[in-house]
UniProtKB/TrEMBL annotation:
InterPro entries tied to this protein: LysR_HTH_N, LysR_subst-bd, WH-like_DNA-bd_sf, WH_DNA-bd_sf
Family: Belongs to the LysR transcriptional regulatory family.
The UniProt record lists the keyword Magnesium: no
Domain of life: Bacteria
Occurrences of domain HTH lysR-type (ranges): 1-58
Lineage of producing organism: Bacteria, Pseudomonadati, Pseudomonadota, Alphaproteobacteria, Rhodobacterales
Entry keyword annotation includes Transcription regulation: yes
Identification of the protein by name: LysR family transcriptional regulator
Keywords: DNA-binding, Transcription, Transcription regulation
PANTHER family for the chain: HTH-TYPE TRANSCRIPTIONAL REGULATOR (PTHR30126), TRANSCRIPTIONAL REGULATOR-RELATED (PTHR30126:SF21)
Pfam family name, one: HTH_1
Length: 292
C-alpha cells in the first residue's frame, strides 16, 4: 500500500465525492474511482458505501481515515523539521469559518498574514455549518461556540458585539416602533449553532425574509427589507444602515479558534494560529470602533 493511495482515499473521504475530490488531486473522477477500487482490493474490504448522494465511509473506512489523517499530520511535521527554521510560513493552510467572519474579517486579516509570508497559500472555507475537523475539511476553524467533544485544541479569540440595525431613514426610538416592520434573519431550521439564534433577544415572533448567510441578510437590510441583528464589525461595510435601540437590544458573542489535537506540535500551524488570533482581535476592535 502506497502513501499516494492514502492521499487519494483521504481526499474522497473528506468530501464524500469522486468528482469533488478530483480537482484537488489533479485527476479526473474516473481515475480517482479506479484508485479507490484498487485500494479496496488491497485492503480486502469496502471503505465506502456508494450511493447517488456520494461516497459515505464504512466503519472500516472511518477508522482508516482517522489513522491516515494522523499519519498525514505526522508527515507534515517531518517536512517542517526537514526544512528547519525559516523566516516565513509556506505551504497551504485552510481555515473554516461562519460566513460573518469569512466575509468581514478573514479577508483583511489573511491578506496581512499573506503579505508577511509570500510563500503561504491561505484558503478560507465559508460554510453555513460547523466545519468538520475530524474529516480534515480544514486545518483549523473559527466557531461561535466552543466544541464539547473531540480531540481538539480550543482557544478563545475575542468577543464581538451585535445590535439591531435598520436603514438610516428608519425612525425607531422605542420597541413599539418595531411593530409592523419586517424582520430579516436566519432560516430557523438552518441555524447550526444556538449562539446564532437571535430572535429571543429581539422578541420577534418570526422572520419574514430569511437566509442562512449573514452577508445576504445584511444586503437585504441595505435594500430596505426591514430590521435585523447585524455584527457591529460588519456595519462599516454597510453605510446605508444604522444601529437602533442600542441599549435595549445588545448581544455579545465570542469567536473560538479550533484545531485538531494531533496538530499541537506543528510549529507552522501554531505560528499561523497566533498570527490569525492576534489579527482577528485587532480587526474586530478596529471595525467596532468605527460604529461606537
Amino acid at each position: 500500500m502506497q502513501w499516494d493511495d492514502m492521499r487519494v482515499f483521504l481526499a474522497v473521504a473528506r468530501v464524500e465525492s469522486l468528482s469533488r475530490a478530483a480537482p484537488t488531486l489533479r485527476m479526473d473522477a474516473a481515475t480517482v474511482g479506479r484508485r479507490i477500487a484498487r485500494l479496496e482490493r488491497q485492503v480486502g474490504a469496502a471503505l465506502f458505501v456508494k450511493s447517488p448522494q456520494g461516497y459515505a465511509l464504512t466503519d472500516l473506512g472511518v477508522r482508516m481515515r482517522d489513522h491516515a489523517a494522523e499519519a498525514e499530520a505526522s508527515l507534515g511535521l517531518a517536512v517542517e523539521e526537514a526544512r528547519g527554521d525559516q523566516i516565513g510560513l509556506s505551504g497551504q493552510i485552510r481555515i473554516g469559518a461562519p460566513d460573518g467572519a469569512a466575509n468581514y474579517l478573514l479577508p483583511q486579516v489573511c491578506a496581512a498574514i499573506g503579505a508577511d509570508n509570500p510563500g503561504l497559500e491561505i484558503q478560507i472555507l465559508a460554510l453555513p455549518r460547523v466545519v468538520n475537523l475530524s474529516k480534515r475539511e480544514a486545518d483549523m476553524a473559527l466557531t461561535v461556540s466552543p466544541p464539547q467533544a473531540g480531540r481538539l485544541i480550543v482557544q478563545k479569540v475575542s468577543d464581538y458585539r451585535l445590535h439591531l440595525a435598520a436603514p438610516k431613514g428608519a425612525d425607531i426610538t422605542t420597541r413599539d416602533d418595531l411593530r409592523g416592520r419586517r424582520v430579516v434573519g436566519y432560516i430557523p431550521d438552518m441555524i447550526f449553532d444556538k449562539e446564532l439564534d437571535y430572535l429571543g433577544e429581539l422578541g420577534a415572533g418570526g422572520v419574514q425574509l430569511a437566509s442562512n448567510s449573514v452577508a445576504v441578510q445584511a444586503m437585504a437590510l441595505r435594500a430596505g427589507a426591514g430590521v435585523g441583528i447585524v455584527h457591529d464589525f460588519a456595519l462599516p461595510f454597510a453605510p446605508e444602515l444604522k444601529r437602533v435601540l442600542i441599549d435595549e437590544v445588545s448581544l455579545t458573542r465570542s469567536f473560538y479558534l479550533v484545531r485538531h489535537a494531533s496538530d499541537r506540535t506543528s510549529e507552522r500551524l501554531t505560528r499561523f494560529s497566533e498570527a490569525l488570533s492576534a489579527g482577528l482581535k485587532a480587526e474586530i476592535a478596529r471595525l467596532e470602533r468605527q460604529v461606537a
